[in-house]
Amino acid sequence: MNAPVGRLEDSLTLPQPYLLFLGDTTNAAYAKTAFGLADWAGDRCTGEWAIDGCTVSTGLPRLSPADARAAGARSLVIGVANQGGVIGAAWVAVLVEAMEAGLDIVSGLHTKLTSVAALVEAARRTGQRLIDIRTPPPSIAVGTGRKRTGKRLLTVGTDCALGKKYTALALHRAFVGRGLDADFRATGQTGIMIAGGGMPMDAVVSDFEAGAAEMLSPDAPTGHWDVIEGQGSIFNPAYAPVSLGLLHGSQPDVFVVCHDPTRSVVLGMESFALPSVEEVIDMTIRLGSRTNPAIRCGGISFNTSSYDADAAEAVMAAERERLGLPVADPIRGGAAFDALVESILA
Fold first, then answer.
1. Which residue intervals of 107-188 are DSSP H helices?
2. Architecture of 8-132 per CATH?
3. Which pLDDT score is estimated for 20?
4. Where would I find the D-glutamate N-acetyltransferase-like N-terminal domain in this sequence (predicted)?
């Protein structure tokens, strides 16, 4: 099916391959754009680059902008998704260097590239482009709450940056692998870069969040699935409004709760304890039933990247027993993930 808001390739062809820029990031959770592109669009990534102080790596070759351009890269993508979506002052010199090496700059941050005078001047001087993709379409209506045809799945989270996008991408791939008619609906900067289109939900004015989600997942044939990438968490003190608007507007028939079992506090807000999986299930049903009374939880997606295989299976098995629901790590796959897919489709 065609994306309802126009895919990026229809209105803007992103210059590829990419050089992924990690800035001075020390927390892998804040480099989720770089990791997402390396994991799901690795064939379109030439390498990575960073500045002093960075302790994070995607595992791609370290290439300077000049070396990356010589290797075929056409743009530098800011792979950082920090709090507030700001362009670090220490990054500007490297971004200018990249343009001087012949690379366009692509960003999904809230701070626009075009708002930084040094970048605008470098773009004018070099002829390279500054491409801000976190820009919603101009004509979003308010939500209507009208029930739409087709089926919808939404990934929700106990927190930010713990696997909602990866889970949605893995489930979409599984659905397509089973011969189902399905679309991945991107709602964040990385997902949009991977999919080539979508809705940057956290750049939408609050009154239009639900309408934007309706626009992203329109009426569809009865057997069609929209697999919608979740954003934030309805328990997050900063980002709950985006999560709630997406929940009401997407009207999911099924949701999957995404959780990192090693995390006990909200990322970047350590004074707030993480909600339990049960709390998220209960609140998602209570709030989501406002626009879809038949909403249900299909299971749990665990991010077990910090565990070895045996430890991961042990923690997931314990949660399956405790919750009475399928629990799987979509990246590990296997029988547990197949059971999660079966529960969603049941």
1. 117-126, 164-177
2. 3-Layer(aba) Sandwich (3.40)
3. 98
4. 47-136
